[in-house]
Amino acid sequence: MSAAAAARSILTQLHEVMASRLHPQGKLNQVVDIIGEALDSEVCSIYLLREGVLELFATRGLNQSAVHVTRMAVGEGLTGTIAANVETLNLAQATAHPEFQYRPETGEEKFHSFAGVPIVRRERAVGVLTVQHGEPRRYEEVEIEALQTVAMVLAEMIDNAGLVDAEDAAGSGAAFSEPDTLEGLTLVKGLGAGVAVFHQPRINIEHIVAEDTEAERQRVYLAFDKMREQIDQMANQAEFGVGGEHEAVLETYKMFAYDEGWSRRINEAIDSGLTAEAAIERVQQRTRMRMREIDDALLADRMHDLEDLANRLLRIVSGQIGTAASMGLREDAILIARNLGPAELLEYDKRRLKGVILEEGSLTAHVVIVARAMGVPVLGRVRNARTLIREGNQLLLDADRGIVTVRPSPSLIEAFEMRSAKNRERQAAYAKLREVEPFSRCGTRITVMMNAGLRDDMPNLNLTGADGIGLFRTEFQFLVSAAMPQRERQTRLYRDVLEAAGDRPVVFRTVDIGGDKSLPYLRSENSENDENPAMGWRALRLALEREGLLKSQARALLEASAGHTLNVMFPMVSEPWEFEEARAVFEGQLAFLKKQKRKLPNEIRYGVMLEVPALAEQLDILMPHISFLSIGTNDLTQFLFAADRANPKLAERYDWVSPAILRFIRRVVVATAGHPVDVTVCGEMGGRRLEALALLGVGIRRLSITPAGVGPIKELVRKVDLEEIGEAMNGWLTSPPPSLRKALEDWAGERGIELD
């Protein structure tokens, strides 16, 4: 029997039970008998969430005396684990699972196999449906799918009967009047205040079981047509210009909208006896469960795009009000969502949207790229945000520090407003430095450039008065594309960037992908099982292996730079021969273009990014062949300290103001002295005032940082005497104090230099 047929058989009987005049307990008692008989399972039980704990409400096969007696906390035992994680379990031997707990009053000791699915209402588990069997066996996929479909019907029946307390259904017993502080991951920096607005208004699916399967199928077909039309319109109306990265993001979005596999799965759910709305929600629940199992951040983001579309499809087919964007934001608002698709973010009024809080989200998500271009702060990985925050709550979003304050007290609001005002004053003061060249007190010109990766970053060059782009991360174009970007698209992007920069230099770093920035369309057998992706088969290593990739990028950069100076930098070089091979690829493409009589760059300057400490031992070999050297402090520091910068337990070991890293950088400065090679520090380290002060002290005269850091660092430079800080730093590095950070703070404080 197919999954659809099995579910339809059960649903037909459940429909009759739901329509009967039996009291709720009597209906549940019939339900467990129907499911148990249909799946030939010796045990079928229903647990419901009451007063914050799961209670056995009905069973076939366990001791009836355990009904309303057996209770367990969410997260306790197998049933509690299913509710806590909103996941399915299918075990041949239940006792082998680490969360197994034996409840003697149930008489379950003779049953070995176990399967359970969450009963989900409004995206939260309100109960668990389980089956058990004496013989050790895993339940067939057809049985699990039937259980999942039945759980949807149960959710409606339980909700209508009022068997689950409203607060429990919402998944929270928290007090909603006291201030609360939630932590998350900074995805886009910034401050924002406003009322909480839920991106996804609750859509209550009133009818689960279909009366006419063909009619439901036609409703879905019409909804698909309307959704695709909406996506096409958004792609054509994207406000960031034709040919930008946002176009690539929306193309990926569009690809999912036309995915036949997705529509087929919804049709299969309708075949099982569900209405159009219930079928979409059924497939959406499966998507959510799959997302919890995906370790690959990029694939998980693609699944989020698919769920974004499922939400849109559900709103269309139900005829209910759309997202908060369609109703319009009436006041300053902070948007709350589990996750958000890029196209949906574009629908919001930027004047009212002051920030976004996501329960999920990652730095590589499409929505983050769009939000950064819109200038909207985003905080991700805020656990249970939609549970702990109520619609209309006042919120203070501090994405700089990675926190959001919910229902703040008047004193907290006042402090936040003062900080925001001070921040605005500071930004205004920095903006005045836009045309001011950063000379130190002793008259030395310091080069302050900015990092970029998108076409939409380029206006910041004029807004900040940066000296150029010291690092253009070309991999961003690859990360937001559903397929390998064609050479013509790459060429167009690079040409636009150079034209926007004008006379100011742009350093293009060749693609740094692979490892933790894996692309589904570019797999390598060397990288799939990397235990340490940051030090794995990535960046130049991968590009040299995939020579076609590097050749295509080389040609695009050379063609785009016609009439300009091309500064090209190779990432993660660990030995000189890697640089030579990469340069040979560019020289080969240059020779080809010469034969074709194509216009060429006026000059080509080659450089490397020093991230791998081993390269520092071979700089004497490399110096005669390069024009510039960029020290990538983000990766360099984690390699030096053998400390993963993404691991919070190692945060204290990942210290930029450490004698080890500063001595290393000083050694590089000394090794390059006397060579016509520009030495630049790229990365977050140079954008922090205290760390930048330390870098100036070890001889660094060129920085490439985030656009937001340009003004603050310019202001810092003008207050520093380089000879004085150099002397102090030499003393500290020769005989390190207990805390070099404190020594720097004290030194700056004595001279009236404000640090971070």
What does this structure look like?
- The protein is of the alpha/beta class and 756 residues long.
- It has four domains: 3-169, 2-Layer Sandwich (Beta-Lactamase), CATH 3.30.450.40; 176-201 and 322-431, Phosphohistidine domain (Glucose Oxidase, domain 1, 3-Layer(bba) Sandwich), CATH 3.50.30; 202-320, PtsI, HPr-binding domain (Enzyme I, Chain A, domain 2), CATH 1.10.274; 432-750, TIM Barrel.
- Helix content is 45%, strand content 16%.
- It is built from 28 helices and 22 strands.
- Helix 12 (342-346) links the parallel strand 10 and strand 11.
- It is elongated, with a radius of gyration of 30 Å.
- Residues 167-176 and 238-242 have low confidence and may be disordered.
Which class of secondary structure composition applies to the elements?
Answer: alpha/beta
Q: Strands of the biggest beta sheet: in what spatial order? A: 7-14-13-9-10-11-12-8
Number of domains: 4
Number of strands: 22
Mean pLDDT: 83
CATH architecture of the largest domain: Alpha-Beta Barrel
**Fraction of residues in β-strands:** 15-25%
CATH class of the largest domain: Alpha Beta
Spans of at least 5 consecutive residues whose pLDDT stays below 50 are 167-176, 238-242
Largest sheet, strands/sense/barrel: 8 strands, mixed
Principal-axis shape equals elongated
Share of helix among residues? 40-55%
Q: The CATH topology of the largest domain is what?
A: TIM Barrel
